[in-house]
Structure formats: C-alpha cells, structure tokens
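Quick note —
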Amino acid sequence: MSLFSRPRDSAPLPVEGRLPGFNGATGWLNSPALAPSDLRGKVVLVDFWTYTCINWLRTLAYVRAWADRYRDEGLVVVGVHTPEFPFERDADNVRRAVQDMAIEYPVALDPDFEVWRAFENQYWPAAYFADVEGRIRHHQFGEGGYEECEAVIQRLLHEAGRDGVADDLVSVTPAGFEAQADWGNLESPETYVGYEQGRNFASPGFAADEPRTYVVPEPLNLNDWALAGDWTITSRAGVLEGAEGSIAYHFHARDAHLVISPGARDPIPFRVLLDGQAPRQSHGVDVDEDGNGLLRDGRLYQLVRQHDEVRERTLEITFLEPGAEAYAFTFG
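Predicted structure written out below.
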C-alpha cells in the first residue's frame, strides 16, 4: 500500500497561505457565488482548468471521483475556469463543456484572470487544497500525484474531525480524452500554431498576419508541422482563408489532438489521413474509420488513437470549407 494511502500517519502538512477567494469571478455554474464565509468549516479543493487543456482533461476523472466520494464528508471542489483560447471566454461554451464532461461541482468563471492572479497561479491544471480554517496546505501543478492529493484530502478531513473517512483510494478507469497518456511512447510536444508561441513550422514563406499560400514540404521531420492552401497565421492561430486547406504534423505518440474552432461560421467538415490513408482502427473519438469529422464548435478534437504499435506517423487534417481556426496540437 502507498505511503500516501494512510493520511493519519503522514508528516505534518505545511501552511502555504490563505485561500484568496473568488471575488474576480464573472459568474458561476452549478452553484450560487461562493465566498470564503460559505466555505468556512469545509475542506476545499480549488481546481484551475480550461476545457481544451489535455493535461487537465487527464486529471478530471480523479477530481470528479473525489468530489463525489468526499462530498458528504465535508469536501467542496471548486473549479475555476480560466480560458487559454478566445472562444473559451464564452460562458455558453464553458456551460456546454461542463454538461458534456459531467461536472457537477461549482465552477467559477474567470475570463479576465482575476481569480488566477489572486492565487498567483501560473498553470493549467493547478489544484490547491485548503483546510477548514481556509489555509492552503498542499498544491499540485500539472498531471499526476493522484495518490498524494487524495491522501491530503483524507488528512484534512481527519483533521476536521471527520472520523468516518476511509483510508483507501478511489478507483477510476479514465476513457476517451481522460485516459492517461502513454508516457513511454510520447515523443511529441504540445505545439502551438500561432506565431506567438509556435515552433517547428516547416512550410516555406512564412508571413505574420498576412494571407499566404503554403505547401507541405516532403518529408516532414519528427515534430515538424506545415500548412497547405491559403492561410493567415496570426499570433494565436492559423486561419484558413481558401475554400480548402490542410495542416500536417509528423508525430510520435499514441494520441494526437488539435484545438480547433469554426470561428463564427457554420460547422465545417474535415477529413483526417494517417500516412496518406484513412485512419481505420487508429481513428480518434472525433472522426470515423474513414477519417471524416465535423468541426461544430471550438474545443479539443481527438484525431488519432493508435491501438497497435505506436510509431512515427504523419497526420493530415483537411478542412473542406474556409474559416477553420487551428490553435494547438497536443499528444498523449
């Protein structure tokens, strides 16, 4: 059994500061607005997230399970949605994501980063654990640490006098986007398309904020990406100007995702090829075996999940109408 599965025997937890509160939130989902006084006497987990973040998505099954298991013992989970991409600022988009992801705990909307700054936070995901006196006693930045985080919850509940808290850990089987990464085969990094954070762009003739006709050079090296067709590369995204255009990436990972949006347009059909062929059994949840998909709204789309040997592959996604906005590739 893990050391962390017996919180009553753990070393003392430090005091890292006080829970700042949520005064900067512009709205709330699943709950009226919560103030520090509403949380007095509760153990609180504050989870910073944004719904396109694959690193956060892979933590969600655990956070959701903790919220369910320890709610009656005195745990309150508060999600703080702080957006990375422009379309994530829209409250209706966040509301849709909350529903689709079966998130039932309170969510504070933080489009202006006010709560983020109050916590002096710098990461998605980031979890802060506070005791019944409102003191932050633990934090977790990024994925992982699930046993330790749950043990901290148990420890803080025990400190608060909740004697019925079990010492065992939740058992979850994440699926879809929430499945844990295949770390042993993950050799491709998060890659932004916009020039502000972009890297490894292989198409010749790059121009910022100007429409250009790009081509995909051959071959693409590992972790290089390129465009084909008429695109404008802005600071945050690549925007398809022509009637049809493609984006290609040479990657090594089990899963390949792309954050994309139709902008203000109607849904845009797209087609995915893997090494020039239909993906078949390696298709992601957002495409069929023939590689067909539909860009309905701005979010993370899973394009590839390999079920056989993981190896270097070239992904190509072709949008069949103009207006598609491509923001970032992520892998798992």
